[in-house]
Q: What sequence folds into this?
C-alpha cells in the first residue's frame, strides 16, 4: 500500500509540473479561444493534482512512512511545507485571471491579454516551477534523513 501511495504522490507532482509547463508554453503563443480553453483545462488539472498531492502527502506522514514525529522534526519537511504554501499563494492570481476568461469563452470571444499581462503570468509560473524544484530537493533530503533535528 505504501508503494501505491508513493507512486500516486510522484504521479501528482509530475502532473503539476507538466500542467504548469504547458500553461507557460500556451501563454507564449498568440491567444486563441482554443488555447484559452486549454489553459483553463490545465489549470484545473494543476488544482486537482495539488489537492491530491496534499492528501497523499498527509497519508504518508500519518500512516505510511517514518511517522509524524519524524517529519515534525525534519527541517527539509518543514521547508517543503512552507514552499507548498508559497506556491499555492502564488497560483491564486493566475487562476483568477484565467477564470475571468470564462464568460468571453462561452461566446467564443478570444480573451484580451496584453503583452505585459502575458509576461507577468509567465513570470509567476516560472517562480512556481522553481519553488517546486526546491520542494523536490527537500523531499529527497527528508526521505534520506538529512536535516533531522529530533532527539
Ligand atoms: C507539490 C508538492 C509536493 C512535491 C513536488 C512532493 C515531492 C515528493 C517527492 C519527490 C518525494 C520522494 C522523496 C524521495 O523518496 O526521495 C516525496 C516524498 C514524500 N512527501 Fe511529498 N511532495 C509534495 C507535497 C507533499 C505534501 C503536501 C506532503 C505532506 C502533507 C508530502 C509528504 C511527503 C512524505 C511523507 C514523503 C515520504 C518521505 C520519506 O520517504 O520519508 N509531500 N514528496
A:
Amino acid at each position: 500500500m505504501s508503494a501505491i501511495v508513493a507512486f500516486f504522490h510522484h504521479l501528482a507532482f509530475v502532473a503539476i509540473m507538466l500542467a504548469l509547463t504547458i500553461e507557460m508554453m500556451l501563454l507564449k503563443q498568440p491567444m486563441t479561444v482554443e488555447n484559452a480553453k486549454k489553459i483553463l483545462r490545465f489549470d484545473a488539472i494543476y488544482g486537482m493534482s495539488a489537492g491530491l498531492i496534499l492528501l497523499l502527502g498527509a497519508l504518508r506522514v500519518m500512516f505510511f512512512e517514518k511517522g509524524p514525529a519524524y517529519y515534525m522534526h525534519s527541517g527539509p519537511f518543514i521547508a517543503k511545507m512552507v514552499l507548498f504554501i508559497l506556491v499555492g499563494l502564488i497560483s491564486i492570481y493566475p487562476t483568477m485571471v484565467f477564470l475571468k476568461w470564462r464568460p468571453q469563452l462561452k461566446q467564443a470571444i478570444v480573451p484580451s491579454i496584453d503583452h505585459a499581462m502575458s509576461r507577468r503570468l509567465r513570470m509567476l509560473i516560472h517562480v512556481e516551477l522553481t519553488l517546486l524544484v526546491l520542494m523536490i530537493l527537500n523531499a529527497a533530503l527528508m526521505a534520506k534523513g538529512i536535516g533531522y533535528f529530533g532527539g
User: Anything to note?
Assistant: The pocket of protoporphyrin IX containing FE is lined by residues 9, 13, 16, 53-54, 57-58, 60-61, 65-66, 71, 84, 132, 135-136, 139-140, 142-143 (CB under 6 Å). The chain has one domain: 2-143.
